[in-house]
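Team,

Forwarding the record for the chain on the shared tracking sheet. I've put the sequence and predicted structure together so nobody has to dig through attachments.
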Amino acid sequence: MLRLILRRLLISVPLVFLVSLLTFLLQALAPGDTARTILGNTYTPEGYAQLRQQLGLDEPLLTQYWHWLSGALHGDLGVSPISGLDVGEQITTRLGVTLSLIVWCTVLAAVVGVTLGVVSAVRGGALGRLVDALSLVGFAVPVFWFGLVLVTVFAVTLRLLPATGYVDPATSLSGWAQSMVLPVVALALAPAAVIAKQTRDGMLDALGRDFVHSLRANGASERSIVFRHALRNAAIPVVTVIGLVFVGMLTGTVLVESVFAMPGLGGLAVQSTVQHDLPMIQGVAVTFTVVVVLVNLLVDIAYGWLNPKVRAS
C-alpha cells in the first residue's frame, strides 16, 4: 500500500508542472494581454511597450514561466498585476469557500445516491424506475437553472434561506450553514443521480453472484448479505464515481458561485481569465491540480481498504 501511494505521488509531481506550463502557455497565447487590461482603451504605443517591459511580458514565454516557477517553488505565487494583491493570500482566503461547497456537495450526493441505489437494488420495482428517472433529470437539468429555481422558491417566495452570499463559519456557524444549503443542494443534484445509478447497477451485479446465493443457502441474514458483502463488492466502482464527482465539481463551482455570489476559487478563476491576470490564473490552476491529486490519492487508499489485492501491489 505504501508503495502504491509513493508511486502515485511520484507521478503527480510532473503532472503539476505540466499543468502549470500548459496553463501558462495557453493563457499567454490567448487574445489580449495584461498590459491592455490595465491601460484600458486609451494608451499610446510607447506607454504600452513600457508597461509590458515593466511586467516582463516582453520576455520569451519560457523565460516568464521560469521566473514564475522559481518563485512558486519557494512558496511565492506572485502578485496580481491587476489588483496588486498577493496571489497566495487570495487563494488561501477563497479556498475554504470552494472546499466547503465541494465537500458538503460530495457528502450529500454520496449519502443520497448510495441510499437510493441500495434500496432500489434490494426492493426493485418503482424505486428502480425512480433512480433511472432521477439519473435522467440529474443529467438534463443545468446547475445554474436549478440554483435559480431554488433561490426563487426558498429565498424569494418562502424567505427561509438567504438568496446569495457566504458567511464565514468563524463569524456565525448558523449563518454559514444557512448560506451553504441552497448552493450545496443545487450542485449535488446531478452527482447524486450518477452515484445512485452506479450503486444500483453495482448492487444488482453483486446480488446476482454465486457467493450471495451460497450465503443465503447457509442462512446468512439479508442485512448481512446486503451491507457486509454485496455493498462492499459494489463499492469500488462507486468510490471511483465519487472521486470523479468531487473532481467534476471543481468546474461546477464556477456556475454555482456566480449564481449565489460566493467568493470562491471558481469566481476568481473566471475573473482572472477575463482580466488576463496570469499569476492569479496560474495559482488557481495549480491549486485545483493539487486538489485533484489529493482526491485521486484518497481514492487509491480507499481501493486498498476495499480490495486487499490493491493493498498488496
